[in-house]
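Request from the bench team (R.T.):
"We need a structural guess for the complex before ordering more pyridoxal-5'-phosphate. Sequence and SMILES attached. Just send the tokens back."

Command: build protein-pyridoxal-5'-phosphate structure.
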Amino acid sequence: MTESPDEERRRADLADALAAVHERVADAARAAGRDPAEIGLLAVTKTWPATDVALLTDLGLAAFGENKEQEGAAKAAELAALRPDATARWHVVGRLQRNKARSLVRWAHAVDSVDSPRLVDALEAAAGKAVDAGERVDPLEVLVQISVDGDPDRGGAPVDEVPALADRVAGCAHLHLGGVMAVAPQGIAPAEAFATVWELAQRVRAAHPRATTLSAGMSGDLETAVAYGSTCVRVGTALLGRR
Ligand SMILES: *Cc1c(COP(=O)(O)O)cnc(C)c1O
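Reply to R.T.: structure attached below.
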């Protein structure tokens, strides 16, 4: 593989940033008495080109987050062309319109931002059709997104609706309930927000023992999220730079 100087520089920058993120996660895990291996890293690649995703797969990453259906679909296809042998799991992490469900199930492995019964039903129907059409084999993994402050504009289900939503996902033939996801809202201390999320994650897990994922923590607050039991940090800026 011959590489342009720009590409070489980008590869080195991404390698440095990735090492720094791994170190932050490991330090936070140790400070919390946890095993760093319990905490996965989802690289949020929204707005960044597929060439960056390709470099991240070279560096050993395999889980990528996108917040727009069309951008994600295009990038997944580009990555498949750039790195036909790479393993990549694509997560949708942003607000999703129900009419995007049918195209999403063709390329996404997981939706981390499910926040309404109608979206659950749309994804179940779409995933079922995709299976029938031979477009996918595995169930779609779903995380229920928690809105800690209940602000409907920022995505996520209000805290008191989360258990029922998790039950609904668990009852779907073509969806697999992975757990919960949250973004710490502005105006609430992250520790307080993540404590609420942790409690809710325990409730969901008590009802659904395989729903072990707690996706919490981004570039700015991953240490706090790891202290409160995060099993997956979603990192964009600290890896790829400012959008
Ligand atoms: C963009 C985004 C991230 C990554 O945020 P950074 O601050 O860039 O690390 C994580 N989660 C969600 C839901 C996002 O939309």
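Two things stood out. The beta strands are 40-44, 63-66, 89-92, 110-114, 140-147, 157-158, 175-182, 213-215, 232-235. The first strand starts at residue 40 and ends at 44.
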